[in-house]
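chain below, 432 aa
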Amino acid sequence: MSQTLVVVGSQWGDEGKGKITDYFARHADMVVRYQGGNNAGHSVAFDGKKYSLQSIPSGIFNPATVNVMGNGMVIDPLSVLRELKALEEKGIKDYQLFISTRAAMVMPWHPVLDGAYEGNRGEAKIGTTKKGIGPCYSDKYSRIGMRIGDLLEPDYFRERLEAALAVKNPELRMLGLPEFNADEVFDLYMEAAAKLRPMITDTSALVNRHLEGDNNILFEGAQGMMLCIDHGTYPYVTSSSPSAASAPVGAGIAPQWIKTVAGVLKAYCTRVGEGPFPTELHDEIGDGIRERGHEYGTVTGRPRRVGWLDAQVARYTARLSGITHWTVTLLDVLSGIDTLRICKGYELDGEIIENPPSTIAALQRVKPIFVELPGWKEDITGVTSYDQLPQNAKNYLAKIGELTGVPVGLVSVGPDRDQTFIVADELKKFIK
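prediction:
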């Protein structure tokens, strides 16, 4: 019977999912990315090198691992080729990668429209990466979008392309933007199709065949739960749901296969872009955390906003995704801070509330309720087990479990693969 593990970001993204996914991917027979697009940045470090992934699954570094870009993703074929080229330039040439025929395809007009929509929002801007992800998802649900499988049938692709441009060119014209020529787009995407053709397949069937065997299968999402289109800080969210509940749909499997969910929880909070951030720091402590944690966007390079750990958010996202264990990242960044704070709940208009409110207006009024814990001075980047941690670091992890109701199952104390250790026996079964 196959073992399955879903890795979910539990905050606003950038929690270190790339590293955690890579940690388990080394022992996985298959890694499946089930939503999002190349607006997601995954940083992975090993053997003294750092790699930045966007849409490619994190198992790409292991030649024995089957990597799947699932039907729930929106995929820019030109970006995939650029990403593969960058990996090959760093010596990553031996890999197995498969792309779903049913995945929505980012077309050249999507980033253009993304930028135009964002520009027209003025002060109400979302903070999009302008990769065309939102417009691509919009076209998918408007049923005028194109899919990766269309590339395999040139005549059909041409038909779909002309139908799409019949809608999109007038929209571009209305916005005062250049229109796209069908012949030029056709030639560009057929060139990409020639290179990607061996990778394009029915990935749902592929994943299900592996599930029926004796395999370790890892499912990874993009962004974080507070950017979920349904449950996040709407409208300052992404265009899909990173929830573990999305994994079955986005991978093309039945929901009963999902048993264990690892929630990636940064030891503090960050977010990129606009929107409320109740525990945000605007002082030297926040600046110090940003520099020690290298908190700058993988895709955009933008400085991330920094705040104290929010257990209210963690409880909420744990409930929504069925998180069974926390994988706490960047614990080492907190070394040297005299007093640490964790938000244990919110006060809204004089009342204690149990969940984040659904509107931005209300979320902007919440007051975080903090607990304080003594910090630790020791450098913990060389720690290789829970027992070696300073007592105050252990106390910090224990408080996370107490406030959220979810135990800590893994701890990361640095960017490298080896700076990671498992705490919970349940997660050790995914290590071969």
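The longest strand covers residues 339-348. The mean pLDDT is 94.
thats it, cya
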